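Feature request, filed as a ticket because there's no other form

It would be nice if the structure record came with a short human-readable summary line next to the tokens. Right now we just get the raw output. Example of a typical job, pasted below so the devs can see what we mean:
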Amino acid sequence: MADNKRDLYEVLGVSKTASNDEIKKAYRKLAKQYHPDINKEPEAEAKFKEATEAADILLDDQKRQMYDQYGFAGIDGANGAGGFGGFGGFSDFFSGFANGSHGDFFSGIFDDLFGGFGGGKKQSRQQQNFDIIDVELSLTDLINGVKLKKTIPLIKQCPDCNGVGAKNKSDVVTCDVCNGHGQVLQQQNLGFATFQTQVVCPKCHGNGKAIKNPCRKCAGEGLVQEKEAIEIPIPRGLVPGQQIVVHNIGNYDKKGRRGDIYVNIKADFDDANIEIYRNYDIDWLVDISYLDALLGKEVEFNFAGEHFTARIPSGSKNADRITVKGRGLYKGANSSHRANLHLIVNIVLPKTLSHEEKELLQKVADVSKFDTDNKIK
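Raw output as currently delivered:
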């Protein structure tokens, strides 16, 4: 049979000097393409078996060395007549996924294909106990930090049974399905072989306990969902778009542990003429009187409750930038250094003028030597 087989490197589409990572990447792609439970084409199962055999041999240093020296003859000899090289031991190979030298890698592939049987990575992620919420902060909150109070629905321990799930503790007994282990064996059919994996017990959901007389309020879950007012400490030194995590203020799990809350920082500015940068600098589009721009004067500003003055250079024009040092955001929660505030000039002209203003401006126009050059050469 070995004479009819393709070269293992050719099967995976890798070179003979390929690293283990390159082999794993190639196999992962082929497994997801040809697994018979996913691909119903007639040749899919054979290609999947072929790729799996190639990966198992080439990821084993000893088998790979024998194959490189003697081809399939070396592998068949090492495994006995009709061994792995002829797929005679294929079911044994799959049944040993969890304990094999590359069990984590192959198990990870099947977690991706089948949704994480036996406590795979996907299942672990689904069991993580956290909430994600958005908070909108004012500019003052971003500069100084704030303790934000927010009411949100949370999973809490049932107040009637104190999280036990039953009115009396004696009503909590060992689960008769998993015998208290929290897991049971489940068979999985891969099309050409069947192997067993451990999965969370469907009756006790991994707790190992069963409830004889469930609490009426929580129906034996030990948990209820209720609104709760929580305090979220927002440190200074943040910019919109960042996310922080606040530990131990989120949902309870069945073991009485409280989860985390991930907080997305968003901006809620009354003045839309603000732009914040990742280096904590702030651009602020400010209206400047045409007279202040002409004469160059000190102008008072009120910025997020902070009062300061800045000189407007004479002859300033629209979009000019005036930097005010140390008026931006703090550069971290524990930093005393602040970034800069940049005033973006927006010169404002009055819509109406009084008679006296017109007369004065006319006198200025009469003596002014300023002129525009609107010529095209």
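Something like this underneath would help us a lot:
Residues 78-100, 114-127 have pLDDT under 50 and may be disordered.
The radius of gyration is 35 Å.
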